[in-house]
Amino acid sequence: MDHSSPSSGGVAGLSQATILRRIIAEQTIAIPGAPMALVAKLIEREGFQAMYLSGAVLSAGVHAVPDIGLITLDQLAAHTRILSAAADLPLVVDADTGFGGPREVEECVRVLEAEGAAAIQLEDQKGAASGTGGTKRCGHLAGKQVVSVSEMAEKVAAARAGCRNPDTVIIARSDARGVAGLDDALARLHAYQDAGADWLFPEAPRDRDEFARIGREFADGAPLLANMTEFGVGPLLTVDELSDLGFAAVLFPVTLMRVAMQAMHAALAVIGDEGTQESLLDLMQTREELYELLDYDPSDPQAWLAAHSNRLAAHSNRLAAHSNRLAAHSNQIDQQPRTAPRGDS
Fold first, then answer.
1. Cys-Cys crosslink for 248: which of 24, 37, 71, 115, Cβ 3.0 to 4.6 Å?
2. Which strand (E) or helix (H) includes residue 321?
3. pLDDT single digits (tens) 107-141
């Protein structure tokens, strides 16, 4: 089965969230992670029907920091805007723990939705204030901590309430499999579904049997999302296998970044050893291939501007709205009462 064609292609009059819901109602799809805007365009050109903004890729690939809660909502919103403007595909955004409690989660959803997110993913790990880091880590690593079921359910309900578009997909991820076991993770996912989650994301099942059990558990429930991240604790199953097990969508969150980084590492070694990149030319994207991907004729730049004027205007409008939100947030901070610093005792 081909899980990358045809592309969703932006059906006239429908939001990307609506398109995403319709797609997964028909078939199980692969959702690659897009490290940057040009990759988003490549994902679209290759016929995939959705793309993913991974917190791990944003942390490591864009900001060169570990995925431990250091990224702020403003940084996530900015990258969401860039990717959603680059490709006419539904964008699934990893919002980690939602940057705080229910009130912050509701604001997070509104911001990301405004920047072009079709689906927003929240997890039940313990987090910290936006950008401060903490106990949060990759879902396939040991040492995670999870919040109470009721706390996460409140966040899910707040996320649902924060959606201006009723079709925006709220994804609830549970990291409890690696903390308290599969039974606890399943119970949590049921609670999150009851709280309003549209899709469910069981993180880090250990083997095919666990994936199968999860599929049976939610056979008549919310669509299931599987994470096929490399070098994790679970098996790498194919999209067809996961479809047979009851999953509606399959993430490949860091795959393209890992492949690209290894290729760049090899290229740097060649340049260091040979003093030239000439032996790498056959492995490179050519200038013509780049321009084709950008839909750009260098002999007529004005034609590109005319053809893409609507997209550029939408991007500018989102940027202006983002600047207004930052200004409003700054004003709120300035108006908060300040306490005098305490002297040494």
1. 24
2. helix 309-335
3. 999 999 999 999 999 999 987 655 545 567 776 77
